[in-house]
């Protein structure tokens, strides 16, 4: 068989497989519609069914990755199935998800990574607004940044958890790659100003010191805002990611300029529904302790005694008094696990206040 005949045979095989894939995706979508009908029929009149189940979504993706034999890697395969699930869910009920805008931010990228492109994404001007929109029921979920591997905790998000009663339903980890971007009118030899979010400027500080030591660094509300500003100026550049670059039609003049190649940001999914255990969960709590010697030791001792692995602990000033603090703690496991229930009961006895923010599936990717 000649190379040309072999290619024709392979293309015919691919066409046949595409037809089967199309048929199976359509069948899955029909199943999703039936699921919606069954849920609505089984509820009392006037009740609203829950279509999006974080624990179910996490299980499906993990199951697909376990079954995956390549040649596509797990991340790519999970991304494909995420989009299929997103489109099928939209047939049941299109989700409205608030994120820190404007369009083109890393928070929007995190929302799409977690929910897929078929959700209705709603940009918000501030983190606190995301919490308010979720609390008001204007959107089902919100996506907020909580910590960066280079710069640490996002204090606005932590403070918003003190002010609002929200449930954490999930988490997303996003690799953050920063690029130096210019507009079509930018004169590259005349760049005197670089726009970006304050955290992004900090994450690229060494690179800027080495390549643009005398350029003014201007912090703006978001990287997307930086990209928008550059479009109308001839002497400025922006630090932003792929989404902002594509959305605002900019050109990269330097790729991946972050100082640390493993630079990542963790985002939380906030909503109102509690998430059942999946067997691979995390829990987040806020604890306020009495201001006395050994308070931190008493707080951590139940975790140690029960063999609970802490993944993060942060301290923020309390709103209740001067020089008093609250602790934000993330740990592995679900609040319904017996050992964790025991630890939380002990902490509740020792603390001024204990607030469980939620138990949720660990980030799949």
Automatic annotation (TrEMBL):
Named from the GO MF annotations, one term is:
prephenate dehydratase activity
Provide the Prephenate dehydratase domain boundaries.
Answer: 96-272
- UniProt KW Plastid keyword: no
Q: Residue ranges of the ACT domain?
A: 284-361
One BP term from GO: chorismate metabolic process
Q: Which Gene3D superfamilies match?
A: 3.30.70.260, Chorismate mutase (1.20.59.10), Periplasmic binding protein-like II (3.40.190.10)
The EC number of this protein is 4.2.1.51, 5.4.99.5
UniProt KW keywords: Amino-acid biosynthesis, Aromatic amino acid biosynthesis, Cytoplasm, Isomerase, Lyase, Multifunctional enzyme, Phenylalanine biosynthesis
Principal location listed in the UniProt entry: cytoplasm
Site annotation (Essential for prephenate dehydratase activity) points to 265
Purpose = Catalyzes the Claisen rearrangement of chorismate to prephenate and the decarboxylation/dehydration of prephenate to phenylpyruvate.
- Its recorded name reads Bifunctional chorismate mutase/prephenate dehydratase
Which species is listed as the source?
Halopseudomonas pelagia
Gene this chain is encoded by: pheA
């Amino acid at each position: 068989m000649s190379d040309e005949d072999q290619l024709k045979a392979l293309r015919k095989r691919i066409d046949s497989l595409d037809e089967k894939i199309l048929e199976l995706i359509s069948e899955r979508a029909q199943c999703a519609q039936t699921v919606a009908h069954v849920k609505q029929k089984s509820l009392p009149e006037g009740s609203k069914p829950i279509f999006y189940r974080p624990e179910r979504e996490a299980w499906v993706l993990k199951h697909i990755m376990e079954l995956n034999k390549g040649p596509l890697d797990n991340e790519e395969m999970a991304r494909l199935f995420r989009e299929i699930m997103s489109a099928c869910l939209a047939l049941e009920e299109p989700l409205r998800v608030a994120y820190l805008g404007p369009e083109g931010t890393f928070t929007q990228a995190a929302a799409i990574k977690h929910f897929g492109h078929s959700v209705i994404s709603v940009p918000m001007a501030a983190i606190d607004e995301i919490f308010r929109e979720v609390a008001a029921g204007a959107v089902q979920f919100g996506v907020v940044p909580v910590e960066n591997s280079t710069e640490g905790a996002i204090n606005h998000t932590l403070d918003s958890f003190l002010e609002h009663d929200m449930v954490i339903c999930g988490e997303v980890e996003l690799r953050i790659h920063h690029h130096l971007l210019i507009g079509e009118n930018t004169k590259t030899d005349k760049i005197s100003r670089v726009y970006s979010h304050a955290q992004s400027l900090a994450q690229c500080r060494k690179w800027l010191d080495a390549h643009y030591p005398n350029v003014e660094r201007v912090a703006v509300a978001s990287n997307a805002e930086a990209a928008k500003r550059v479009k109308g100026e001839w002497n400025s550049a922006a630090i932003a990611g792929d989404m902002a670059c594509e959305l605002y039609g900019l050109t990269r003049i330097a790729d991946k300029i972050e100082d640390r190649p493993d630079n990542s940001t963790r985002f939380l999914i906030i909503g109102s529904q509690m998430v059942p255990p999946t067997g691979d969960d995390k829990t987040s709590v806020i604890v306020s302790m009495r201001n006395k010697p050994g308070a931190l030791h008493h707080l951590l001792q139940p975790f140690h005694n029960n063999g609970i692995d802490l993944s993060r602990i942060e301290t923020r000033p309390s709103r209740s008094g001067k020089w008093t603090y609250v602790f934000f703690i993330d740990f592995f496991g679900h609040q319904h696990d017996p050992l964790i229930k025991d630890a939380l009961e002990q902490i509740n006895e020792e603390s001024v206040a204990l607030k469980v923010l939620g138990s949720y599936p660990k980030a799949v990717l």
